[in-house]
């Protein structure tokens, strides 16, 4: 809860302002003179000062000057007389965050304070040193992009990390959608708050709802069990909805209402809780096509795509492959206690000729496997055992298949076969969870000995 210091010599105005801002959810301190206000500020943690200009003794301008000298990061909003243009200009020049003309309108006051605190949060966040966790995420992220599309994406991360707009990240499996979500979260105003990841591929709808929003129920012993959901745990941080296209229609409707009303309900509780977190969603599927097919809610789509990031596949950014390779070599040198410092003849030619259907994730896994078998300090092309997982479009005649399910069945079977039924690697390649993979294997009655 933000703390606001109100300074005004009119005790009636002081009382009215205090009541208005307490009702708006702020913690309020008051002072009836400039001198008292400066003393209170020196001995309290205050997020914003609201001060009148016309006061006996220390004027509002003098209060502003003192605050800017002693606590320059605390924003000051000045209360001025109607039409007092010279004073308004002077206050802004001296560093006032804003001004409000009398008579004061409650709605305007609350809106100006809210906006000022949001701006101050952005300034404070980007001026602080990165936390250890944030620094670790950024340092271990392959921030590489020679191609113009990637350079533009990194610029956009810088822009949108300074606010809390909803973001939709689109891209094929393995292009780094979760990585981009982490970079947005850890680079800006949310980085001191939790990052909560929700896998939207969960099979049980009720379980996923409870995971997202929590529940309260009475146990058989008569005790109340209160389970916090991830939307509550996120607080003012970030909620990353991984592969949002997998949400059931019912959950899509509920999520839309949450984003529209900015509040959510726990199961078993009638009083809603406010949504404070930023929403970032990802999808490896064409949501516009799913909308046309009636499989994704259009109203939800427009709620989550206030800003869109479209990640290109690795085959369209092959100029980045050498730098990405060097990044992963250095990363696994540290993790594996290796000293690989160069690559052999034909190494880059080999990896650039591969189509990388699994994108950056496949490249990283391939480099890791090569590093494990590498015997010296030179990574040879013979160390690279690239799995030849061909594109479904290259191996199956789509036109002869009648349903999406048939295409999915063939693709899953194909990836399982290529990876020798290693379910962990298959789930990573398909960008789905192990439980989801097991459910699809059961659904399509796939067996290891199938030909």
Fold and architecture overview:
- The chain has 451 residues and is of the alpha/beta class.
- Helix content is 47%, strand content 15%.
- It has four domains: 3-127, Rossmann fold; 135-310, Rossmann fold, CATH 3.40.50.300; 314-383, Orthogonal Bundle (Helicase, Ruva Protein, domain 3), CATH 1.10.8; 392-443, Homeodomain-like (Arc Repressor Mutant, subunit A), CATH 1.10.10.
- It contains 20 helices and 16 strands.
- It has a five-stranded parallel sheet with strand order 2-1-3-4-5, with helices on both faces.
- The chain is globular and about 90 Å long.
Class from helix and strand fractions: alpha/beta
- Domain unit count: 4
Task: Name the helicity range.
Answer: 40-55%
How much is the average pLDDT? 86
Briefly summarize what is shown.
The chain has 451 residues and is α/β, with parallel strands linked by helices. The protein folds into four domains: 3-127, Rossmann fold; 135-310, 3-Layer(aba) Sandwich (Rossmann fold); 314-383, Helicase, Ruva Protein, domain 3, CATH 1.10.8; 392-443, Arc Repressor Mutant, subunit A, CATH 1.10.10.60. Helices cover 47% and strands 15% of the residues.
What is the element layout, followed by pairings?
Blueprint: E1 3-7, H1 11-23, E2 27-31, H2 34-42, E3 48-52, H3 60-70, E4 76-80, H4 85-93, E5 98-101, H5 106-127, H6 132-139, H7 148-160, E6 167-170, H8 177-187, E7 195-199, H9 205-213, E8 214-218, E9 224-228, H10 230-233, E10 238-242, H11 249-261, E11 263-264, E12 273-274, E13 278-283, H12 287-292, H13 298-304, E14 307-310, H14 321-336, E15 342-343, H15 347-353, H16 359-373, E16 378-379, H17 392-395, H18 404-418, H19 423-430, H20 434-443
Parallel strand pairs: 1-2, 1-3, 3-4, 4-5, 6-13, 6-14, 7-10, 10-13, 15-16
Antiparallel strand pairs: 8-9, 11-12
């Amino acid at each position: 809860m933000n703390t606001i210091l109100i300074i005004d010599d009119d005790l009636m105005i002081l009382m009215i302002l205090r009541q208005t801002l307490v009702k708006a959810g702020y913690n309020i301190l008051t002072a009836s003179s400039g001198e008292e206000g400066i003393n209170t500020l020196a001995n309290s943690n205050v997020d914003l000062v609201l001060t009148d200009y016309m006061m006996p003794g220390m004027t509002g301008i003098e209060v502003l000057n003192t605050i800017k000298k002693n606590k320059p990061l605390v924003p000051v909003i000045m209360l001025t007389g109607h039409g007092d243009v010279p004073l308004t200009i002077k206050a802004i020049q001296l560093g006032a965050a804003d001004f409000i003309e009398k008579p004061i309108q409650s709605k305007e006051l609350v809106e100006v304070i809210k906006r000022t605190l949001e701006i101050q949060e952005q300034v404070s966040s980007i001026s602080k040193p990165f936390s250890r966790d944030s620094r670790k995420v950024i340092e271990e992220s392959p921030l590489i992009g020679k191609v113009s599309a990637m350079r533009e994406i990194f610029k956009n991360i810088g822009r949108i990390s300074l606010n809390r707009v909803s973001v939709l990240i689109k891209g094929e499996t393995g292009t780094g959608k979760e990585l981009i979500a982490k970079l947005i979260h850890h680079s800006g105003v949310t980085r001191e708050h939790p990052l909560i990841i929700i896998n939207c591929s969960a099979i049980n709808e009720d379980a996923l709802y409870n995971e997202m929003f929590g529940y309260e129920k009475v146990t058989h012993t008569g005790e109340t069990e209160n389970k916090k959901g991830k939307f509550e745990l996120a607080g003012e941080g970030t909620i990353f909805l991984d592969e949002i296209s997998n949400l059931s229609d019912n959950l899509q409707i509920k999520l839309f209402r949450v984003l529209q009303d900015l509040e959510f309900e726990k199961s078993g509780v009638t009083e809603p809780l406010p949504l404070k977190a930023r929403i970032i969603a990802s999808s490896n599927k064409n949501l516009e096509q799913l909308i046309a097919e009636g499989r994704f809610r259009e109203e939800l789509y427009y709620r989550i795509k206030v800003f869109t990031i479209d990640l290109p596949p690795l085959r369209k950014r092959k100029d980045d492959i050498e730098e990405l390779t060097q990044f992963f070599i250095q990363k696994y040198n540290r993790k594996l206690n290796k000293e690989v410092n160069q690559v052999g003849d034909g190494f880059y030619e080999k990896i650039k000729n591969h189509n990388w259907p699994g994108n950056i994730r496949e490249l990283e896994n391939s480099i890791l496997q090569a590093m494990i078998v590498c015997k010296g300090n030179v990574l040879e092309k013979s160390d690279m055992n690239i799995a030849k997982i061909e594109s479904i479009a290259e191996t199956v005649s789509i036109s002869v298949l009648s349903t999406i399910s048939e295409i999915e069945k063939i693709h899953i079977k194909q990836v399982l076969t290529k990876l020798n039924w290693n379910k962990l690697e298959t789930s990573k390649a398909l960008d789905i969870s192990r439980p989801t993979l097991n459910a699809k294997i059961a659904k399509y009655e796939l067996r290891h000995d199938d030909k």
